[in-house]
Amino acid sequence: MTAVTARRPLRPSLTGWSGRALLGVVLALFVLFFAIPIVWLLLAAGKSPQALLVENPFAPGTFGDLAKNWSQLFGFEDGAVTGWIGNSALYAGGALVITLLASIPAGYALALTEFRLRRIVLVLTLVVMLIPNTALVLPIFLELNVVGLIGNPLSVILPMSFFPFGVYLTYIYFSTSIPRDLLAAARIDGCSELQVFLRVALPLAAPIVALVAFFSFVQNWNNFFLPFVMLPSSDGYPVQVGLTSLLASTPAFNPSSAGAQSVQLPTLALATIVSVLPVLIVFLFSQRFLVTGMTAGGTKE
Questions:
Q1: What is the distance between the alpha carbons of residues 105 and 215, in angstroms, rounded to a whole number?
Q2: Alpha helices (runs of H) in the chain, residue ranges in sequence order
Q3: Same structural domain for residues 124 and 269?
Q4: Final residue of a domain: which of 74, 108, 143?
Q5: Among candidates 213, 234, 226, which has minimal Cα distance to 279?
Q6: How many CB atoms lie within 10 A of CB 197?
Q7: Residue from 198, 208, 165 nearest 296 by CA
Q8: Closest CA to 275 of 228, 238, 225, 234
Q9: Is residue 131 part of a domain?
Q10: Which of 61, 152, 276, 287 is the most exposed place for a label (fewest CB within 10 A)?
Q11: Is residue 42 part of a domain?
Q12: Do 56 and 181 fall into the same domain?
């Protein structure tokens, strides 16, 4: 008796050496695509305007030129950059505090308590999370204009603290990673609902608190459109909006700006690095908590 074995159709695979080579080439192209601009930006901050245009784009700069660019940057408009950085810290930090005070208890309530309209609130949270932030700027502007907050720091801090994604992250964590029996035992021992949250659930939620805090801080620090609309005066600008003033004072982009307060391209490159440096520092010091928070909720009790 002859057994007839059906041959399976061949499918492309990346397990062989040729597949791995192709994958390596693709990854290398992506790395170069993202790495080359970053390397150029870092090197440009330490060059003179002439060296930036004439010399090799990837030639290293000098500490002397870096010091000159630093002095020009922080001397722009009598130290406006320092004020912009302080404004960014105020807006991002203030919104972060309100976000944590609202998002963590809200996620806990949605995950581990029962109340009327709970499911509707959860659905609304998901729907609002999908709406682009820029689409909400105009109605928020009209609301804050009615109460006279335009130009006030609260006109930026309050909308920034609205962070439904943080509520959803907290909801997922408490739904999957906190044993309900542990909370029930605390209630049996006489803890009120507030004590259960503060003494039992919140200490166990440190990873997700760090994750929500990081995402909120990064989003608020990099927010451009909201403060640009809400703050009519440059004295209240955060650093991301202040970069537009530097850009407008750069003759390479605005020829009519040549003058005593003109900004050269290396100084503009340095300003870009300074604007993202706080986010990079926060990321480097919170890596361990971020990794723990991202993997939290991966298993269910």
A1: 17
A2: 17-44, 49-54, 63-74, 80-112, 118-130, 133-146, 154-160, 164-177, 180-188, 193-196, 202-204, 206-221, 225-230, 239-248, 265-285, 287-295
A3: yes
A4: 74
A5: 213
A6: 21
A7: 208
A8: 238
A9: yes
A10: 287
A11: yes
A12: no
Could you tell me if 224 and 181 are in contact, meaning their C-beta atoms sit under 8 angstroms apart? no
Domain co-membership, 121 together with 215: yes
Range of the domain at 238: 80-295
Shared domain check, 232 and 209: yes
Other Cβ atoms closer than 10 A to 217? 21
Domains contained in the chain, number: 2
Q: Do 55 and 87 share a structural domain?
A: no
Q: Which two tokens stand for residue 297?
A: 């909720």
Tens digit of pLDDT at every position of the chain (301 positions): 444 445 555 455 556 677 788 888 888 888 888 888 899 999 999 999 999 888 888 888 899 999 999 999 999 888 899 999 999 999 999 999 999 999 999 999 999 888 888 889 999 998 988 888 888 899 999 999 999 999 999 999 999 999 999 999 999 999 888 888 888 898 888 888 889 999 989 998 888 998 999 999 999 999 999 999 999 888 899 999 999 989 888 888 888 776 657 888 999 999 999 999 999 998 888 777 676 655 555 544 4
- The answer to whether position 49 is within a domain reads yes
